[in-house]
Write a structure and sequence with these properties.
The complex is a heterodimer of chains A (131) and B (388). Chain A contains 4 helices and no strands. Chain A is mostly helical. Chain B is an alpha/beta fold and 388 residues long. Helices cover 43% and strands 15% of the residues of chain B. Chain B contains 12 helices and 14 strands. Chain B has a 7-stranded mixed sheet with strand order 7-6-8-9-10-13-14, with helices on both faces. In chain B, strand 9, helix 9 and strand 10 form a beta-alpha-beta unit. Classes of the chains: A mainly alpha (131), B alpha/beta (388). At the A-B interface, helix 3 and helix 4 of A face helix 3, helix 4, helix 6, strand 7 and helix 7 of B.
Chain lengths: 131, 388
């Protein structure tokens, strides 16, 4: 199936929009959730565990942005270096999200993070199709 | 008559009251069902139900029948339904354990709730490597995909030299884990897939058309499908048209009732991994088969047998350890370690490394054209002996 120029542009827009949604969701949910949890449980919870969760949340957001950048670069230049970087960042995002999910979370927070994971997985499939 | 004013009559009456109360409580508790949660697809539910029925037909567990508590959303691999089911089940403080869920992603998501609530979870067919880290209350009736990935790679390499291999994998907790082990093992053997792409759980035929076109351009000789059969249905016709000679190997998720209900034969010739040797014949398995087969359930599936074994195993755990969640967990952890393996219809069940079962895999061909109509299994079962 030969791609038309218009079709490719539409795919790029689709990928970018999904990227933005995922990044925003990751930043908002993880950041606000971590903050809310820390405010609510700061007396009771182990500070080391909290710091670890915060580190993971920050890492997830950062890696998502890096994956976004790799996707953009690959769409611009089709260099497999960027494709490998995109896939590598994807693996790291997934691992960090899974690591986060092994922490003690409220049911609401757990559902939020699981939703982010599923969104990220859908984004990767969409990006693979766009590539 | 004042009770406390008649000391001589108080003791016999008081004693009678205590004894009577105890007898009443004992009578009420005796026969009180032991609750086991079930979050499975229809075939798994049927296997679990038959196991519970058989335990109850033999008098239950010290007079207490097993009662299965079913949760909705069993067939979903999405976390929302899995978490809702786990929350619902664990809110019942009389629930002793859970058999489920069907899919790796769902089992993994729910496992954190079960572990937090100290409810034993036995996942019959969840193979994702991450489940090994789910917690001390999580067990499974199958091995981790660190083994299946290597096994699938062996099957690919059996096609000689460096075969042109394509990989399509469902991008969820199940597919990702198995895909990574498979591809890394192939690369270690010097085989780089010529096509390697994910698909989503919710993808339909329109999404797969482009995939097949891209796959055809890569000209693989072997395709490894890491996913479920219902989605392969969307690929099969176009794939056979574009690549008539392609060999399709599929992971364990491919199996299930869809294969028996394949009136259009879109799955013919696919070689897929089974977690249980159905070529092995024994009296107990045949007895279960006769009870299981009915309208809508034409053949025993891996999930049906493994769910049956899970419920039977839990019944033994409760029988020996008592109806207490922590005691059940401790008893299960000793199976195959300090205590002998449990002998199930699927073979010996042991947990040599945490909650994981030792690996064993078999390849089956769907409606092999060279065989008589029906299924054929490789004559030499392909095991991966030893613990993880």
């Amino acid at each position: 199936m030969k791609r038309t120029g218009g079709g490719k542009t539409l795919r790029r827009r689709l990928v970018w929009s999904v990227l933005l949604v995922v990044s925003a969701a990751a930043a908002a949910m993880l950041g606000s959730d971590s903050l809310a949890m820390s405010l609510r449980d700061s007396v009771e919870r182990d500070s080391d565990a909290f710091m670890d969760e915060q580190r993971i949340a920050d890492q997830i957001v950062a890696l998502t942005y890096q994956q976004q950048l790799a996707a953009y670069r690959f769409l611009q230049r089709s260099d497999t270096v960027y494709l490998n970087e995109f896939q590598g960042q994807g693996h790291r995002v997934y691992e960090e999200i899974r690591q986060y999910l092994f922490h003690d979370l409220s049911n609401e927070a757990r559902l939020q993070v699981e939703s982010i994971k599923e969104l990220h997985q859908e984004f990767e499939v969409a990006a693979a199709r766009a590539f | 008559m004042r009770w406390f004013g008649l000391a001589g009559q108080r003791r016999p009456m008081g004693l009678a009251l205590v004894v009577g109360t105890c007898a009443l409580v004992w009578a009420c508790n005796r026969g009180e069902p032991y609750l086991i949660g079930v979050v499975l697809d229809a075939d798994g539910q049927r296997g679990a139900t038959l196991a519970a029925q058989e335990v109850n037909e033999r008098g239950g567990i010290d007079g207490h029948p097993i009662q299965l508590v079913r949760a909705t959303g069993a067939s979903s691999s999405y976390a929302r339904e899995a978490l809702a089911a786990a929350e619902s089940l664990t809110s019942n403080h009389k629930l002793l354990a859970v058999v489920g869920h069907t899919n790796s992603g769902a089992s993994l998501a729910a496992s954190q709730i079960y572990n937090a609530q100290h409810v034993v979870q036995i996942a019959p067919t969840s193979t994702t490597p991450l489940y090994s880290r789910a917690g001390p209350y999580s067990f499974r009736m199958v091995a981790s995909d660190v083994h299946q990935g290597a096994f699938l790679a062996e099957q690919v390499l059996a096609y000689g030299g460096a075969p042109r291999v394509g990989v399509l994998f469902v991008n969820d907790d199940y597919g990702r884990g198995l895909h990574d082990v498979l591809v890394n093992t192939l690369r270690s053997a010097g085989v780089q897939p010529v096509y390697d792409a994910p698909f989503a759980t919710g993808d339909h035929k329109s999404e797969f058309d482009g995939i097949v076109a891209s796959l055809a351009r890569a000209r693989p000789r072997v395709l490894v499908w890491v996913g479920r059969s219902y989605q392969f249905r969307s690929v099969s016709v176009a794939l056979r048209r574009a690549l008539p000679s392609i060999v399709v190997l599929a992971s364990d998720g491919f199996g299930g009732p869809d294969l028996s209900l394949d009136s259009l034969h879109v799955f013919d010739g696919v070689r897929y991994v089974r977690l249980f040797d159905f070529s092995r014949r024994n009296v107990e398995l045949e007895r279960l088969r006769r009870r299981y087969v009915s309208p809508g359930f034409p053949e025993l599936t891996d999930q049906a047998v493994l769910s049956y074994d899970a419920v039977t195993l839990l019944a033994e755990a409760v029988r020996h350890a008592g109806p207490r969640r922590e005691a059940i967990r401790d008893w299960l952890a000793r199976v195959g370690n300090e205590s002998p393996p449990f002998v199930g219809l699927s073979g010996p069940v042991a947990f040599p490394s945490g909650g994981d079962r030792a690996p064993a895999y078999f390849m089956e061909v769907v409606d092999d054209p060279l065989a008589s109509r029906g299924r054929s299994t490789d004559s030499a079962p392909l095991h991966r002996p030893g613990a993880q």
